[in-house]
Design goal:
242 residues; Jelly Rolls; binds manganese (II) ion; globular; single chain; 9-stranded antiparallel beta sheet; binds (2S)-amino(carbamoylamino)ethanoic acid; 6-stranded antiparallel beta sheet
Length: 242
């Protein structure tokens, strides 16, 4: 029997590095893409893609129309959109609103996580502004659960935003304080460590490089392993699905 840790449940998928299958897009010439989730997997409202840039580097232009969030996993890519120029080195990130035309460039190998989403407007609220930063510039706040820290890469209190990106870090043995079942969807990328993820009624061993898509109302719980864990979490916010 051929074995894999990868899994597709009713309301989630777990994709491990061993499951990666390369795709391409005309807008990112030469880059190898791993589409971790796209709207083809109903009901996902996002595409989350691993972008692997090779020795030849990349010169790419992405047309306006969608929100973009880019997170550097390795190498030294960069993004330009109007007056904004941002380095996308390891653990640096940028958010670009849907009216931005962007150029992504790299002079050599680099790896990025790319989230694409159609912005959901709300009466009386303007498009959110572009943001750039680096994880290490953001203070980690301890949550009500000792040993569980969150860094918010986008302002979680701004109702103009239709999603947040949080870096969750767990000390060894620490987990989420409850089994959550909520309306918001998640795209989760393990940036470090390992642990056990409860999804629906299934328990999965997860580790660095794994990706989980959780649809709305997917039951979810987590406990970190002996060396702790860290993950980057997409969550839609301030909207109700209509
Ligand atoms: O914010 C959240 O929904 C988060 N606690 N969920 C998760 O880590 N699976
Ligand atoms: Mn959650």
């Amino acid at each position: 029997m051929i074995k894999t840790r990868g899994h597709r449940g009713l309301s989630y998928t777990l994709i491990t590095p061993e499951n990666h299958y390369v795709s391409r897009l005309p807008s990112l010439p030469g880059a190898e893409l791993v589409k971790l989730v796209t709207p083809r997997l109903s009901p996902s409202r996002i595409a989350q893609t691993l972008v692997r840039i090779g020795e030849a580097g990349l010169r790419a232009e992405i047309a306006p129309g969608f929100e973009t969030f880019l997170f550097g996993l390795s190498g030294a890519a960069r993004v330009r959109a109007g007056a904004l120029t941002a380095g996308l080195g390891t653990r640096s990130f940028a958010y670009l609103p849907p009216d931005a035309r962007l150029e992504i460039a790299a002079d050599g190998p680099a790896e990025l996580l790319w989230i694409k989403r159609r912005y959901e407007t709300w009466p009386g609220l303007r498009n959110p502004a572009a943001v750039q930063g680096a994880v290490e510039q953001i203070t980690a706040t301890e949550t009500a659960t000792p040993g569980l820290h969150r860094r918010e890469l986008l302002d979680p209190g701004d109702p103009a935003r239709d999603f947040t990106m949080s870096l969750m870090s767990f000390d060894p043995g620490v987990g989420l304080p409850q089994v959550e079942i909520h309306d918001e969807e998640h795209g989760l990328y393990m940036t470090g460590g390992s642990g056990v993820y409860l999804l629906e009624r299934d328990e999965h061993q997860v580790k660095q490089g794994d990706f989980i898509y959780m649809a709305p109302y997917c039951p979810q719980g987590f406990a970190a392993g002996a060396r702790g864990a860290e993950y980057l979490l997409y969550k839609d916010v301030f909207r109700d699905g209509f």
